[in-house]
Structure formats: C-alpha cells, structure tokens
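Here we describe the complex-level prediction in full. Unlike the single-chain runs in Section 2.1, the two entities below were treated as one system.
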Amino acid sequence: MTDPLLLQGAIAGPAVAGVVWVVTWWLTGSRWPWIRRAAGGLVAVAAVAAAAVALWFTYRGEDLRWRSYQPDLLGASVAVVVELAVLLAAVRADGPERWGPSAMAGLAVATSAVVASAFSRSLAVQAVVLPLPTLGAAVAAVAGRDRGDLRGILGLAAADGVALLGLSVVFTRVGHTLVGPEGGVLGGGLLMIAGAIKAGAVPGVGTWLLAATDGPGAPVSMALRGQGLALALLGGLVVVPGEPHAVTAAMAGGAVLLSGAAALAATTGRDVVTALSGAAAGVVFAALGLGGAVGTRAALVLTPPFLLAAGAAFTLGWNRREEVDVESRSGWRWLGAAALALAVLSLAGLPPGGGFPGTWLTLSLAGARAASAAPYYLLAGAIALGLVSAALGAVPLLRASWARTWPAILGSVVAVALLYAGLAPVRLGIGWWVRIERDLGVPVVLAASSPPDLPPLGVVNLALVLTEAVILVGAVVALARGFRDVRVPFVAMTWPRPPPGFGRRIASAVRPATERARRASVGLATAVVLEAGAIVLAGRLVLLAARSGFL
Amino acid sequence: MAALGLPIALVLGALADLAGGLASRMAGGRDPWWRPVGLPWDEARRLLRSGSRRGRPTVVEALGGVGAALGGGLSAAGTLGLVPGSAALIYPALALGVVGLMLADPVRTAAGEVEAALRRRLAAIVEPAFVLALGALLLRWRSFDLDAIRADQTVLGPGLSVGPAPAAAAVILAGLAALVATALRLGPSLPEVARRERQARGAGSRLVLGMARWSVAGASLLVVAVLVAGHRLDLSLQAAPFGAAVAVAVLLLGMGATFAGRLSTRWRLLVGGGTLILAVAATVLVAAS
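The structure predicted for the assembly as a whole is:
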C-alpha cells in the first residue's frame, strides 16, 4: 500500500504543486503572492519528501513497485536531486504575470516527467514521458514569446528525436521492453547525444539557448538538465555500463573548452550561469566517455553536486533585465554571494566545492590514460582550461551578486551541502556509489593497479587549510570591525569588437534571410515537425512494446 | 603537516615581492626596497587606528581572500608532498587561487570595475599559456602524479640534468613561461596599488589583496621549482638544487611582476601572447625529445 502512494507522490507531486500554484494564482491574482507560494511550495516539498523516502527504501534494499515503476538506487537518487534542483529554480519561476503561470506549469509537468522516467526502466514508459519536458518548455516559450526560448525548442525537439531513435535501437537489440545492458554502443551513444543537448552541455543548442534567455523557458531548463543527465546515465551506465568511448570523451572535452570561452565572453549574468553549468555538465560526459570503473564512479560522484549547484547558481545568479537594479538587504546579499561562490566552485570543479572530488577523479583518470595514449593529456588540459575559464568568467557575476531573501536562504542551505560533499565525499557517498556500481555490473579495478581513488585529499587536510584561510582573512575583518557594503554592476570583460571584415559581411548578407525565416516562424515550424516525428516514434515504440507483452 | 602549505606560500610570495621591490629600486624607483613587505604592516596599523567603514573589506573581497589563501595553501601542500599531490589537485588549487585573487581585487565604482575587467581579460588570455607550460613540465616526466615525479628526481637527479639537452631546454622554457604567466596573472604590486588609488581603496581591502597575491605567487613559484628541480625538505646537500630553483623562481617572479605592473595594457597583451608561444615551443620540444 505504501509503495504506490510513495511513488505516485514523488511522480505526480511536482505536477500537482504546479496545478495548485496556477489555480491559486488564478484565484488571488497578484494581490497575495505568499498564498500561492505557500500552497505550491508545500505540495512541492511533500513531493520531494516522497521521493526522498523512496530513495531511503531503495537504499535499504527494499523493492518498491507500482505498475511499470520500480526505481533502482540510481533512478531514485536522480529523482530526489532533480526535484530539489527544480525547487530552487521554481523560486525564480514565480515571475511576472505575463509568463509566471506558463513557466510554472511547464516546469511542473517537465519535472514529473523526469521523475517518472528516472523511476522506470520500461522502454514504453521512457518513450511516453520523453517528449513531455520539451512540450512543457514549448508551452512556456510560446507564452513568453521570447526568440531565444523558441530557438532553444528546436534543439530540444531534435534531441527528443535522437533519444527515441536510441530507444528504438535498444529495443531492437535487447528484444524485450526493459532498458538493459545489451542495448549496444549505438543505442547508448544516441541516448548520450540527446542527453548532452538536454543537459545544456552543447554550446548554443537546446537547453543552452533556453537557459540563457530571461524568458519563461529559462526556469524549465533546470528540469531539462535533470532529464539530460538521466538520459546520459541511462545510455552511458545502463545500456553500455562502463565502456570507454574515446569520441564521447573528446567531444565532451571540446564542449567544456567552448563553454569556458563562452563564459569569458559572457555579457550578462544569465550567460555566465548558462556557460558555467554547460561546462560542468560536459565533465560528466567526459567521465562517461573515459569509462571503466573509475569513469563510472566519477560520473556518479559528479551528478548530484552538478544538479544542486546548477540549481543554486540559477536561483542566485540568473536575473531578468528588469531585475538588474533591484535593491536587496545587504545581509541577504552577503549570504547569497557566499552561497553563489560555493555553487560556482562546485560547478567549476574547484576545491572545496561539491564538484571537486568528481572532477579530480575525471582529471586523474585522463592523466592515467595519458600514460599509454598521449592525446588524453589534451583531454585533461581542455577540461581543466575550460573549467577554469568558466570560473574566471563567473568573477563579475560574483562581484555583482544581488540575492534576495528566499534565494539566499535556499542557496545557502544547498551551499552547505555542497561544501560537505566537497570535504567528505567518501563519508557521504561510499555506500551509495559502491551499491550502484555493483547493481550496474561495471568492471572492477584491482586496488593493486593503483587506480585514482577518492578522496582527493583527506577531509582533515582540506578542513585544516580552509580553517587557516578563514582565520587569516577573518583577522583582517576583525581588525576592520566588519564589512563594507558596496554594490557594483555586472561588468563583462569587454572583448574587443572584430573589425568590419569578411565575417561581418557574411553576417550582414545572411541577416535578411534569417529575419525572413523568423517572421515566417520557420524555426518554430521545424521544431513542431521534429517534435511530431519524435511523438510518432514514441507511439511506434509503445505499440511494438505492447505487441511483445508490455500491456 | 598540510597546515604548513599556506605559511610557506605566503613567505615565498612575500620574498618574491621583496625581490620585486629590489628590482624596482635598482631601476630608479623611489620606494625603499622593503616597501612591499612593510606596507601591509602599515595598512594593519592604519586599519586598527581608524575604524572607519571605508577601510573595511567587502564580503566579496573577503571571499576572494579566503579562496586565494585556500588555493595557495592546498597547492603548496600538494607540491611539497605534505598532502597526496597530483596535477589534478595542484592545478585546480592554483586556479582557485587566481579566481580568489580576481575576487579580492577591491570592489569600486563602475569605472574602476571596467579596469578590473581588463585585468581579468589578461588573466584569461595568459591562462592557456600557464596550462601549456605546466603540461610541458608534467609531460617531461610522463606523469600526473607529483609524488612520482619527486621520487623520480630524487633517484635520477634534478629535472634539468636528466635526459637529452632539448628536454632540459624545454623544461627551462616551460618554467620561464609559467613564471611570466604567473607574473601577468598577479596584477600590480601592493605599493603600486596603494600609490594609484589610495583614496578609492580601503586599507582592509588592500590587506586582503596583498595576502591573496602572496599566497598565489608563492604557490605558483613552488610548483615551477619542484617540477624543474625536484625537492627535498631537509638540510642535506641534495636539497641544494631545489633551494636554488626556489631562489631563482622567487627572483624571476618578483622582477617579472614588478615590470609587468608597469607595462601598458597593450604591452601586457603582447607579452601574454609571447608567453603562449614560449609555452607551445616548450611543449613541442618535450613531446619531440
């Protein structure tokens, strides 16, 4: 009796929270915003609690089951982290009247779909829920009429098509309706490509574009990032467990480097958050591409901190145009700046952020592989340089930090969790990742071969140096008897404009054509056609599954 | 033992600044040569006496100071073997130091922020040069593990003396490129900062910036010295090459940072480009040898 309720609560909870929020918004209008926030927030927290209890049961080894939903430890963990990250993004989705309800509705539906997909290994369920986040984002984008949002939908629709193609390949190979390890490299690869676009790891495509706008599509990007990582883990760990893919690793390294360059060239806080999150997502794919037991562990260790840090960075760093000059209390701004700094460090894989242990493992693995194949040095260099460039690009965002009350409070709670994950990754997760690795059947590495292993350095060592640093700066603050309160705007690195030349001439020649295409809504029409194709593929897969006994 | 990393980095950073002060004095500067180390003491006393709000650091500067000190401390501890060290720890720690240094750059008016943004741009441009130079020094030993590299040098001798001449030349080039890149990333020295903007910046901000600078400078030169000459933390004769490498790195970094601070933006960009070429040449030489 408990199982169905728990799973139903975790899956439908986000959608119900969205409905509650929209209904209360419709009933109360903009007069009493706290009513809709409290009502929607309570239901959302209940959904997270249900997902967390489901995770606890699966951790204890109990077999939860409701119809085709039977979460394993990996799926249950992804569900909880995605719901938490979306909760952070939802704080910012409660935006202007023009698009607030559509953004919240899109976010809620997308989150429920991601949790449903994480809880099930059934190909039919995967196929049915796969297009829902894109449709949720499309509803929000159409309501906001933001060009960037609409451009992002095109990539997402293509990703849906690629993912369904991947699922079809997996179905053809395994011959039954469950996603299993016999799915083949092609199926797993297609799922990972779709996952990369949805996780925002591919610069300028799909979720990347959606997240960089200040329209209603941006909050929905958080659910899409969760879906992207769920797809990547499905493709990289379940379909082809622990198998190295040099091409995936190389493409991920290139994407991280490009993301770092994009962060340096960013002109708004939104661009920085997008590029930094993109770079961090790329590291997960690099870890999956490096493969083996160590690569699998790196991907597992990276995923939860990535989603939480991306959520915190979004809630604290993303802003709309009209929010640039918003005033906030200095105390919340200070708290928000500290939380944002930890989120940035986590995303950039720098100590003591939560992303550091996983990034350390990924870089160490690339270094170990480089001993036999020198090009892996290039991969390690590209990842390191991309992440550091992204962190440098985030400096103006941190200097112009302006958090308000709720984002600052929620962001600091997440920041404390990220700090703990960065300081004591083994204490936090050893039972968790060892069990997932055993379930997935990834190759075992003998300790005698001295593989890179966690922790990067002991918790005591890291805490000791951190304490020293805090005492040193704390002494200056104590001498000065407090902090000074200054607020500065976001100042980009002012890259020089290219002189009028060949590139500019091409751009001006192409512009009329792109304007005509925009007016004729060519992009939107293409997205609709692609998404329709994906839905047809999903229907076909469900029919095939039904014939082989799914129903 | 990990706690020793930060003090060592700070001391080496201060020594590099002293070397810079000496170079500045010899080049006709008016400040006494010990001014880079004396200034923080003056700032601390000023801070204690005045108690005005303007002297206080901002939260972002303090966060930057903590980041720089943590990065420098971790990197120095990893480089000296006080904690298990590998390039996957050293480089992120150094990068944290640089990000912290950028944050510790005192927050000012919008116009001042544009100037800070230009400095960040330079740091971003020289970052690839630093990564390539560090990569060349690691590639020389075909290892990411600093413990293994130190062990190799303990058995075979300092990195410079092992292997063919082109490899030794590559190590020298890479070390030089890494030091020049570090000098460019550090930005202007503390006396320079105090002279330019005494009115705009508080003593607390300058103190935080000074500590961040020393921490990053000390940790960076330590990495270069260990990768070039190995290291032993004792007073035996075999520790002499490491001591000499540290001394040379201190001198070069101090002088480089002083002169880089005097260059115009355009010249700094040019030097950054030159450093990148130097680092590429070192990498090619190492790969070929």
